[in-house]
Write a structure and sequence with these properties.
149 residues, mainly alpha, globular, DUF3429 domain-containing protein, membrane, DUF3429, transmembrane, transmembrane helix
């Protein structure tokens, strides 16, 4: 197993910023108020996490689709079919109130990690993929916890 390339690591970490900001503004009423007044109410608390999380699940569907292109036959067909699950999950399950949407979003990210594992097991993802995805997913789930609980 190798370390992820620096650009992948840095961009992955940067991708956590909306989740971290959402968690901070959920836990701090004064920061929430400042953020809502400065950035708008859509960019604080669970709202930024839920919107951005749905976007990221859809983005990750595209990543998995790209992995599926690295194979052929029935494995490719399975890969393509599996790759659309995160985007469909985000579309169908992140619509309710903040608590239920965050719960479903967390389940979507946990499920995505299982899909990542399967694609890595098939040898379609780079060897650094799972360490990167495991760390990023753990932080996303921790950031969603204040909204869920």
């Amino acid at each position: 197993m190798t370390a992820p390339p620096l650009p992948a690591l840095l961009l992955g970490l940067a991708g956590l910023l909306p989740f971290l900001w959402g968690a901070l503004t959920t836990l701090s009423p004064s920061l929430h108020l400042w953020g809502a007044q400065t950035l708008g109410p859509r960019f604080v608390g669970p709202y930024v996490q839920l919107f951005y999380g749905a976007v990221i699940l859809s983005f990750m569907s595209g990543v998995l689709w790209g992995f599926a292109t690295r194979t052929t036959g029935s494995r490719a067909a399975a890969g393509y079919a599996l790759s659309v699950i995160p985007a469909l999950w985000a579309f169908f399950f992140t619509g309710g109130g903040p608590t239920s949407a965050a719960t479903y979003l967390a389940a979507g990210f946990a499920g995505l990690l299982l899909l990542d594992w399967q694609f890595a097991r098939w040898g379609l993802a780079p060897d650094w993929w799972m360490p990167l995805r495991t760390g990023l997913t753990a932080i996303v789930l921790l950031c969603l916890a204040p909204v869920i609980f």
